[in-house]
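Q: Start with the shorter request: fold the first protein.
A: Done. Sequence, then structure:
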Amino acid sequence: MPSHHKGEETPELVKYNELSDTLTVKPRALDITWGGDSRYWKISPGAGPAELVQVSWLQVNGKAKLSYFKKGRDYAVRFRVELRPDNFGWGDRPVYLMSGVDGQRLWRKADLGAKRPDEAFDIPMDRPLTFRVPVPSNYSNSAVVEFGMYEIWRGRWKGGLVIHEVVIEPVGPTLTGLQ
């Protein structure tokens, strides 16, 4: 059995809403370190959630083709998550969230310890995790935005985190009307 879950990109798991210019990525489309081992993660079939049972190394990565998005526009990445009542290890261990295009990475921190169990919430909570879609004419249709959630530095066990989805949505106006 493989120890890591490799994301699957299917129309059921990665959905683009053209009207709202929003992309929704379900957990099964994410690369989850230790996600292939049921001692550490429970990954639902289809578009259901992924539940962290326990790990000391939290690493969840995703990517989306930039061709989904409008050139020159800023977008925000947010993870919709929830803590189970029996969650542990989050009190003094923030998670770090990253988005990046063309090697330009932006990081945000989210403290989960004060959140109430069994209520879904979005992270990051305070400042948005944004990226800008490049405008240059040599823009490649295979270019991607990378994003992720991490807690790999403290080496302590944590569990009881549920990932429902990742949402990427526009923020602010389109730059100079570029589409």
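Q: Next, the second protein, separately.
A: Sequence, then structure:
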Amino acid sequence: MHKTALVVGATGVVGRELVRQLCENPAYGKVIVWLRRTLPWTHAKLDTRLVDFQKIAMMPPEPVDEIYCALGTTIKQAGSRAQFLQVDVQYPAAVGQWGRGAGVPRFLLVSAPGADTRSRLFYLRAKGQAEQTLKDCGYQTLDIFHPPLIAGERVDRRLAERFAIALFRCLPHNWLASYRPMTGAQIAERMIAVAQHQTHGVQLHRLRANP
């Protein structure tokens, strides 16, 4: 039987690759996407819906096998710390709670290395809060992914990030392999591959680029 996947955060570097690869994967018969603006392409398996993420709790339940969450922003893009927390913590939590109530068995989250509710760094503390909220939902399987730097065409990419990615690409492949950048396509591929194996509980996946 073909699976149904729900993707949130589909307009980002990882999210759009998740949508593309899920649509091309024969294991999936339907790919639902919740977003705030339309996607620039269509597919026979694709079911896109414009939603208000502040009203996720009001969304009716429907059969979904896996939720892929690639929501994320920057403080600069969001405009304030409060708006950042809304996108990176509150929205994933709302989607997680909706999915748990709808009986979705598996949730896959893109987070960040070093995510910790006790971190002194605001960004990592926020990511840790998002992870903890989803752990508290009690999914049959919760997959948390910690990718290194993400290489891809980001509209809001900062100069420092571009420099870091260029630097790491010049380094030997066996040096700091855990920190070498990965593309959105590579991260999406790993996530979908993980979802094809039955596991239980909270699974942490520390991703690293292939040598």
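Q: Describe the second briefly.
A: The domain at 3-206 is CATH 3.40.50.720 (Rossmann fold). The beta strands are 3-8, 28-35, 46-50, 66-69, 106-110, 141-146, 150-151, 182-183, 201-206.
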